[in-house]
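does this look right to u?? zinc ion version
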Amino acid sequence: MSTSPLSFELIGTDGTARRGRVTTPHGSFETPAFMPVGTRATVKGLMPRDLEETGSQICLANTYHLHVAPGDKVIKKLGKLHTVMGWNKPILTDSGGFQVFSLPKQQLDEEGVTFSFEKDGKRVKLTPERAMIIQNNLGADIIMAFDVCVPFPCDYAPAREAVYRTERWLKRCKAAHDEAQGDQPTQALFGIVQGSTYPDLRALSAQLTRDIDLPGYAIGGVSVGEGHGLMMDVIESTEPYLPKDKPRYLMGVGYPEDLIEAVARGIDMFDCVLPSRYGRSGVLFTRRGRIRITKGKYRADRFPVDPQCSCYGCQNFSRGYINHLINSSEILGSTLGTLHNITFYQDLMRAARSAIEQGTFESFRRAFLDEYLSEDRKDELNLHFTDTRQDHDELSWDTEHSVIPSAKPVKHVDMPEPKPQAPQTTEKPKKDAPRAKSGGAHANKGNAPRARQGGKSQSGKPQGGRPQGSKGGRGKPRGKGPSKKK
Ligand SMILES: [Zn+2]
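got this back:
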């Protein structure tokens, strides 16, 4: 048996929320952590130095895409992922299972999954052993087990069978991985818990997975259309069975509210394409919700995207300029959108870590969600924290209010006060006092990601659907927060 190349230090807890540090052969990252996704060994549009500037301490690359092009053997010849990407910090690769299971005409048997390459139709079989070899060639610090992903919804019997097959495959992954790594392992293998949305299957899968000694554990099969409420239920039925002294990774999640609510339930690591994918198309996260910067109303807007954001874009450019760049399909627009969104996620994680350290996570969580979510979204998710109805004012918000601290003091772009949309008092709002109603449209209405760019609607009505099945938010009342466990 070899020693693990990865260690986890649990620095503190606040309720179920955890503050930790993961150390890998390429350095440490603080948890709760958000990992930006570099699908083809690049976070689209960002230089690695930009990515570092967002506060990202670890990033992810996708095994399936890199196996297809340029090929994992080519990556190995070029010096493996850290060298190729010019990123000397921790990297995680997935197993490729999630992508393979979503391909048409894939065939599953006990040995593995057979599928056709999208580019040439060639039939290929991916097995647990093969997934380990490919990830060994890529050379990430953390690699993921090849698991059986079931769709949502899924009947009980196939979901149960997938749990047991995932366990058998995990044992094969571990055997292949241990053999390849020998006495001097440089990669840490994480196991994945499945079980669809059945609490007993999640508990079963968590116990079966935990019984195999690994440096970390992940919750898979989420963010597949089940919605926020069911996702939280899945975490709650899994978390009690996961070891306290190992990192927990919620795969492929999600929106800022998903992250904060999952941190409250004991999750340490996240990855998601949302901030980069949205950023490229001009859907930008702000402390007052998402905005679609391509809308006509931002054309002459002289404020930064988020006055509290420390990113290079918010320090130097106006909403109006970014509106122009993205509407003109300028590369810089996508870069600035991505840079801003990933910075927003990293600022959120930093604030969460700080709140856990100070024992104030619960009040931070409430304050963030209260400011960030629109009333509609609070209704949808059953997340209500105050009885006061507040309107989000996209344009002229006070810069001292935000609950997410900036990485450094914000230097303001030289810009005159914009034309107020509604009469405003000169008095600054008191802390925790409800903001004056502005008459402005909700910041995160009407900005659904698939709506057309440059939508002309000024009505504030939603223009499209959400990409995740976020409607299934069957919710228990969350007003009191997640159940407290020690
Ligand atoms: Zn920014």
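Residues 305-306, 309, 311, 313-314, 340, 343 surround zinc ion (CB under 6 Å). idk if thats expected tbh
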